[in-house]
Amino acid sequence: MHMSRRAVLGGAAAVSALPLLGTSAAHAAQGDAPYRWRNVVIGGTGFITGVLFHPSVRGLAYARTDIGGAYRWDDRRGRWTPLLDHIGWDDWNLLGVEAMAVDAAHPDRLYLAVGTYAQSWGGNGAVLRSEDRGATWSRTDLAVKLGANEDGRGTGERLLVDPRDSDVLWLGTRHDGLLKSTDRGVSWVRAETFPGTPADPGQGVTLLVAAGRAVYAGWGDGAPNLYRTFDGADWEAVPGQPAGAAARVPVRAAYDRHTRALYITYADAPGPNGQSDGSVHRLDTATGVWTDVTPVVPGGDDTFGYGGVAVDARRPGTVVVSTNNRWAAVDTLYRSTDGGRTWASLKESAVLDVSETPYLKWGGDEPKFGWWIQALALDPYDSRHLVFGTGATLYGTRDLVHWAPEVRGIEESSVRQLVSPPTGRAHLISGLGDIGVMYHETLTSSPSRGMAANPVFGTATGLAQAAAKPSYVVRTGWGDDGNGAHSHDGGRTWTPFPAQPDLAPSAPGPIAVSADGTVLLWTFVHWDGTKYAAHRSDDGGASWSEVGSFPKGATPVADPVDPARCYAYDTDTGTLYASTDGGRTFAARASGLPSGDGQFRLAAAPGRVGDLWLSTKWNGLYRSTDGGAVFTKVDSCWASYTLGFGKGAADYPAVYQVGATDAVTAVLRSDDAGRSWTRINDDRHQWGWTGEVITGDPRVYGRVYLGTNGRGIQYGEPV
């Protein structure tokens, strides 16, 4: 659905100052208890959609991600600093960064166009403005939607400081044409002379680039697909531009100021998926002559598009481009030193070192060079410092041969499950989107074993540990070679279940294991939301039987003490179901509890029989101490999104939740079984949407692990 023109013109609606970032977390801004927050280190783990070296400051660069905010490169420390961790719960949609811009004449200025989804349920986008390289921000809310996690998120940049006037900014949108600001991003109006007509759903403006004093705009919704302005007022289609499927969508562009050549990569779709054709073209901006300089023409079984492009600021005629969506032959970079007349692939000579992030071996022996390569950048002060983003990391080289991830400080995983074992080498096991399950022997370096193998999962859907037998752990997820596995050494090594239900490949859901490890309950939910019956195994997954009395699609929860008891919450009816025969049959107990499409989480307090907590998005917390026969409302909070337990200060475990006791959704800890709560995060550490999973450490009082949707696993400890 497109916004009306009136709504677009109202885009300067809200201007507000945002808090300081990058300072010590020892003193909470509004928190009740000072905590130190850090990432559990994995390294990268998400789609790097853009990298921007500053043209006039050595060693300064910025990176953007599709769901995990933006980062600033600290060249002295060799790591990235996150810039948007202050984004709060209500503004979760702003953690996706659609585009970045810097000002060559004012090195401390940084601009971000933020907004994760352009769907009707996503909020409007915003432009963030900083005068101190992202340490502090001002914000202008837009009346249009942006799509940092939509198709086309690797194109761009869609945001640009006008080369003639630092007060003028341009912002390309997906559905609302081209916007212009004449007050450094404080207010925005539609550029009425821009001729592009948005399609539905469409891509709109795919890129903005300065070429001398001219501004060029790529257009993803049909021919012509490249426009330019010389005066900032009148726009025209660029004459002679290439046509056909291989040049349908301009993906990225880079300008060589020495030769006055503009290089543009094209594909038949915006990507990162769905591309099967593409090309590279060079425009001589002085003469208007176009030249096809495509390194390799896609065709036959070798289909792909072209993605990133970068020019060497120190060496005229040196340009690098990337292929994208080239699954058969694997994506590569092509480098030319003669303006695109000849090219050399860099993949064949590449030596990859992923020792710092072993998960990039993807459960095998060798890492892949890359995929989803649309972010590509050359350091303007070092011709051999080249970086490119993938769907999981940012590779860099200083000699064009040896490559290693340059992702220290970047953590972008979407976290689905967390288990903190009471014993063993690891204090944490995690289940993640896209990169499966990790065994964290240490919190400060990437897991040495990489992704849990045998089988390897893409996205994990379930993770559970036998409470009385912590050496036994089970996991489920989306995998090509099996969808369930168990471990007898606390999660270090894994073996596939001997068998799995027929539903497992198409609808793997969460799993629970009884306290003694003898019974498994596996539920199934299709990606489209269709719910199926749970299945039970009492022989380690060798055989499975359907449990007809289990509420379809519910998440099973095992009692942590009594192996005969397990529970499930039916969100459709607001009813608690319980089993006392090891999951063979379930019967309804408490009813009349909150129901519907809201968020619910049922959890069992460790070390206690039948002590259940139910967190609900709109109605707060409920607790039962009799196995779910009766629930009592916990009146100390009005909203609760997820809940977990850790080592207590006294006899009862510490209770952790993401919830609200007042107007602010926060990370909370209770040391008195939920009678009162202490906020343990602060306004600088909010990470957008954090409602999926939280758990305390059963061995370390005060330590808590928090899953985010795009900023990895955060862990906090009292200062």
TrEMBL record:
InterPro entries reported in the protein's UniProt record: TAT_signal, WD40/YVTN_repeat-like_dom_sf, Xyloglucanase_GH74
Alphabetized PROSITE patterns for the sequence: TAT
This protein's record includes keyword Hydrolase: yes
Cited SUPFAM superfamilies: Oligoxyloglucan reducing end-specific cellobiohydrolase
Keywords: Carbohydrate metabolism, Glycosidase, Hydrolase, Polysaccharide degradation, Signal
Signal peptide interval: 1-28
Source superkingdom: Bacteria
UniProt family annotation: Belongs to the glycosyl hydrolase 74 family.
Protein name: 1,4-beta-glucanase
Source organism of this protein record: Streptomyces broussonetiae
